[in-house]
Amino acid sequence: MKSIVDILVLLSYLAGVVGFGCWFAKRSQTTREFMAAGGRLPGWAIGLSLFGTFLSSNTFIGNPGKAFGDSWNFFVFSLTLPIGAWIASVWFVPFYRKSGEISAYHHLETRFGPWARIYMVICYLLTQVSRAGTIMLGVAIGMHAVTGWDIRLIIAATGVLVTFYTLVGGIEAVIWTDVVQSLVLSIGAIIVVGILLFGNPGGAALMDTAMAANKFSLGSFALDFTKSTFWVVFLFGIFINLTNFGIDQNYIQRYHAARSESAAKRSVWLGAITYIPVSAMFFLIGTLLFGFYQAHPEEQAAIASMSAELGKADAMGDFALPHFMANHLPAGLGGLLVAALFAAAMSTIDTSLNSSATITLRDIFRKIGEGNDGKAQMRVLRGATLFWGSIGTTVAIILSFDSRNILKIWWDLSGVFAGAMLGLFMLGFVSRRAGNAAAITGVIVGVAVISWMSFSGASWMPEVVRSPFNSLMTTVVGTLTIFLVGLALSRLKQA
Questions:
Q1: pTM, entire model
Q2: Which of 287, 293, 442, 467 is the most exposed place for a label (fewest CB within 10 A)?
């Protein structure tokens, strides 16, 4: 890092966040406090926490990286958030608040049997370790570029810090630290935009360069599902946000933490609407950085060299913002921006760890979770937090050897698991006719389709049998396969 001031700013921030999270230790001594904060939190705090969860390092590093290397095509995902928020406020929030069950998957056992609950829990936990892994990788990329510290050591340190305060403070620590971190992250983005717009060569020149390269494109509007067109990202966004708001334990737990149903609904809207302009700001940063480095080709070569050294030549854009932070910010601001990057990571990882621990207790250790032994339940919650924190950190280290853009890695992974989950949830939520046999058959066929699409890019698969669809369509096709096959079989049985 370029100065002792930067280091002091970063360390002060980290100490403050961890200390703040630990302050809630006395208020997280029971399972209800640890998992749902006693159901007493205001809607605005939960909304900012949801916003902070959206704003992971995938946003901080991935969005600028994608805009730098490609265009604003992936911003279309953000435009689908109001659709998901509306559906959640009308159907999902009342459904879960009325159930009174903190697990998002409890009702599926009642609907289809124990297998459905187990299936959803496995998919969910795989999603969470993938999410934690990509987010830790993002923060490590940024910190490596600014500090020169080893990427794997940064990943390990991040995992230890976040796991510690989540373990101690429970979901109330998660939500209130997310509120602080979402504000820090937004301030950091505003600072970078300001420096780029009012620096040298100046915002007008940077925008002209970006416009000439068609960097503001949202993608082709052709009905072509083999490429990342506007409609492919739009469909992907709708299905992923239905997954987030409808069956993601991260969100369902927050519905229960709100002090009322109306507060929970307001939180959904606040989180979704706030994210859209901030997401656009990060895409703008990537676009402006493209213009900036076009004007400084020698520095662009340095970015290419850095990404190649780390085995990520195909994701050069991920290093544009970290390089800018390391070389073009005054002393002190570099530390603030790295702190903002840490905020982006921690505000999502802490949520994943707390919700994964909750699922472990309520869905895996069910006899303990439904018993009266509070001490045993707390041991499971804390042990599971440590376990999933360790797994997520390990996944991040493994993904550090992947050459793809970090946002692309996450979307590909989440698309596989989301498609496997959402189809079954929709079948049970929409159709009252669908029975156990129809659901099982739909899942088997759907998982087979998802596997086929997921492995179609593998070198060992013959060209003739590969999926023609863009990888973002995996969640769309997989969801519809499970839902439609199950629906069709249920109607045939009724006929």
A1: 0.86
A2: 467
